[in-house]
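for the writeup, i need someone to sanity check this before i put it in the appendix. the sequnce is what the collaborator sent (i think, or maybe the updated version? ugh). structure was predicted straight from it, no edits. if anything looks off just tell me and ill rerun, i have time this weekend
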Amino acid sequence: MLKISPHVVLTKTEDAAVLLDKKSGTYFRINPMGTSVFEMLAAGRTQDEVVAELCARHPEAADRIPADVAKLIDTMRRAKVLV
């Protein structure tokens, strides 16, 4: 299961969100879709569940969602946002 690092916090802004790694001081700006992915992962959902939910919400983008989610998760893993 994917878990959010304990030292990472999410702060929402008007049109996006920021992930702050309090340990390193690094921050990442994510768009609304990225925010949804982060929140679902934080709630304990699996990557497959996240993809299924986003495809249900956005059927017009269902062909791109699996790759986009995988890329975001890979980026968050490399940045140690996910452990």
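The CA atoms of residues 59 and 65 lie 9 Å apart. DSSP finds three helices and three strands in the chain.
thx in advance!!
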